[in-house]
Design brief:
This protein has 447 residues and is α/β, with parallel strands linked by helices. The chain is built from eleven helices and 22 strands.
């Protein structure tokens, strides 16, 4: 047996890397993890956690207005962006400390340096030190894609948006995925004039068409402008802001351009190709069902593999890797029926097949819907309708998809996703007594 400095060396201390490192150490492995920025990764430092805090902050704009209909004498309230920003960044600092503490308690050595792969069992740190490891795990995540148009350096990405010095009066958001629609809702609620542009005429590709169309309708009603079939031609500084040119539309002047046009795996400069690790055409590490790359000693989990770019998936991949390689309990991640959510205003959530996917796979489907106004919205005089949708296999009655948009949709769907994962039937929902009065009861009342 060769002697190595570590049993496992993890490059990247995000959600997947931290889970893999901690569980591997619990199984008795000697583990080190290198992180060039901050422990916690995209989700904790510059992604879903701080973004969700912005979503909470933004929703007070509607809640304060609605409170008046419920008898509360709420005065006109101002919004302090810097106060929210600083409180949010303080919470990120706290979580960063907790992640460091968790790794330390698990016996994992944390190395705050960039690391590159220089051999099948060798890693070189930015300071020049070389270390050896029986197994190397790549968990470097991904970074925001930026269009290559002239003036692209004048825009920002979701990495920088949490550090803005002031709230922009006019915002242009490029993209139509979940990041674009979430920040469109956030800035709109904060009072910014939001324009969202997209190269096609479809938002949130991959989500159920009826649900995403409902979000588009509500977003437009709330004042968000959408420019479809628009490609960037350039950004230039002008007096008082930025001028953005695009195909098919007139130029627009804004104060901020936010790129939300997808994410690219972080593999550039890691030395992977030089040691024989296969990458796909997007730069992602190609792995098998056990997270192993084309080199037996090198594995990868999380967004760097570009399979399913979701934090809970990266965590499960890290767990499966650790249990399989070091725990003697081999298992693989099941990618079927993964629930997902868009924290827009209002939020969307879904699990399983969309209606079109089900029709393509099953040929025929049964679709049940509930289109209603939440009780709170009725009294608040807010004309915003929720939509729940259930898709069933007509032969077996099994629920193959659940999709919804409305208040607290992600919170409701998490429990309902268990039913879809378990293969329950429509009759199982019908036989469940409703919790009244709730929005969630619509799931068991659809006919």
């Amino acid at each position: 047996m060769a002697n190595y400095d570590y049993d496992l060396f993890v490059i990247g201390a995000g959600s997947g890397g931290v889970r893999a490192a901690r569980i591997s150490a619990a199984h008795g492995a000697r583990v080190a993890v290198a992180e060039e920025y901050r422990v916690g990764g995209t989700c904790v430092i510059r992604g879903c956690v701080p973004k969700k805090l912005l979503v909470y902050g933004a929703h007070f704009a509607e809640d304060l207005k609605d409170a008046r209909r419920f008898g509360w004498d709420v005065p006109d309230c101002g919004f302090d962006w810097k106060l929210l920003r600083d409180n949010l960044l303080g919470e990120v600092d706290r979580l960063n400390g907790l992640y460091n503490q968790t790794l330390g308690n698990a016996g994992v050595e944390v190395i705050l340096e960039r690391a590159t792969v220089t051999g099948k069992h060798e890693v070189t740190l930015a300071g020049g030190r070389k270390v050896s490891a029986k197994v190397i795990l790549i968990a470097t995540g991904a970074h925001p894609a930026v269009p290559g148009c002239p003036g692209h350096e004048l825009g920002i990405t979701s990495n920088e948006v949490f550090h803005l010095e002031a709230l922009p009066r006019r915002v242009l958001i490029a993209g139509a995925g979940y990041i674009a629609n979430e920040f469109a809702g956030i800035f709109n609620e904060f009072g910014s004039k939001v324009t969202l542009i997209n190269r096609t005429d479809v938002i949130l590709r991959g989500y159920d068409e009826q649900i995403r169309d409902r979000l588009l309708q509500i977003s437009m009603t709330k004042g968000i402008d959408f420019r479809f079939n628009a490609k960037f031609e350039g950004i230039e500084k002008v007096k008082g802001g930025l001028k953005v040119s695009m195909t098919g539309h007139e130029p627009i002047e804004v104060d901020l351009v936010l790129f939300a046009t997808g994410r690219v795996p972080n593999t550039r400069g890691l030395g992977l190709e030089a040691v024989g690790v296969a990458l796909d055409d997007k730069g992602a590490v190609v792995v098998d069902a056990d997270n192993r790359s084309s080199i037996d000693s090198i594995y990868a989990v999380g967004d760097v593999t570009n399979r399913v770019q979701l934090t809970p998936v990266a965590i499960r991949e890290g767990q499966a890797f650790a249990d399989t390689v070091f725990g003697g309990k081999p298992h693989q991640v099941d990618y079927e029926n993964i629930p997902s959510a868009v924290f827009s205003h209002p939020p969307m959530a879904g699990v399983g097949m969309t209606e079109s996917q089900a029709r393509n796979k099953l040929g025929a489907v049964k679709v049940y819907t509930s289109d209603f106004r939440a009780m709170k919205n009725v009294l608040a005089d807010r004309n915003e309708r929720s939509l729940y949708k259930m898709i069933c296999d007509p032969t077996t009655d099994r629920v193959v998809g659940l999709h919804m948009i409305g208040p607290d949709a992600p919170e409701i769907l998490q429990a309902a996703a268990v039913a879809v994962k378990a293969g329950l039937t429509k009759d199982a929902f019908d036989q469940t007594v409703a919790l009244h009065p709730t929005m969630a009861e619509e799931l068991v009342l659809m006919k």
